[in-house]
Specification:
- The protein contains no helices and eleven strands.
- The strands form three sheets. It has a six-stranded antiparallel β-sheet with strand order 1-2-3-10-5-8, with no helix packed on it. A three-stranded antiparallel β-sheet has the order 7-6-9, with no helix packed on it.
- The protein has a single domain, classed as Jelly Rolls (Sandwich), CATH 2.60.120.
- Helix content is 0%, strand content 45%.
- By secondary structure, it is mostly beta strands.
């Protein structure tokens, strides 16, 4: 199967259905998610996230590592205490248990391709200081 990418379309892969990014309200802003291979077809999952200008992914850490490739736009990635500028064509390796967040710092869509193991642990959401976030259900 071939999925065609449409740069600067604000749709990335227009023929692939959106899926939910996260269930936790208030931990991310303006992020869409698409799974590019149906679950069960591979031992890994390839996902496309698009972050609108001013948006960001959740600040989190988890046991599984992943690789992220920037397909369009520019942004920042926080890896632990370091923040790096990234743009189209850059590749980011996120090691196990490394706190991380992706943010759109540009004026166009920031599209990233993320490859992870299909079977993986759930992320631990983090506060700005890196401590685990307490959910409203736990408080």
């Amino acid at each position: 199967m071939i999925q065609r990418f449409q740069e600067q379309s604000q749709k990335g892969f227009p023929n692939v259905e959106y899926t939910s990014y996260k269930d936790e309200p208030g931990t991310w802003v303006a992020v869409t998610r698409r799974v590019l291979a149906e679950p069960g077809q591979t031992k890994f999952e390839t996902r496309y996230f698009e972050v609108a200008p001013g948006g960001y992914t959740s600040y989190e850490k988890h046991g599984h590592e992943h690789v992220v490739v920037v397909l369009q736009g520019s942004g920042k990635v926080q890896l632990g205490t370091e923040v790096h500028e990234i743009s189209s064509g850059d590749c980011v390796h996120v090691p196990s248990w490394t706190p991380h967040r992706f943010e759109n710092s540009g004026e166009t869509p920031f599209g990233i391709l993320c490859v992870v193991d299909r079977d993986r642990d759930r992320p631990v959401l983090l506060e700005a200081d890196g401590s685990p976030k307490v959910s409203s259900e736990e408080a």
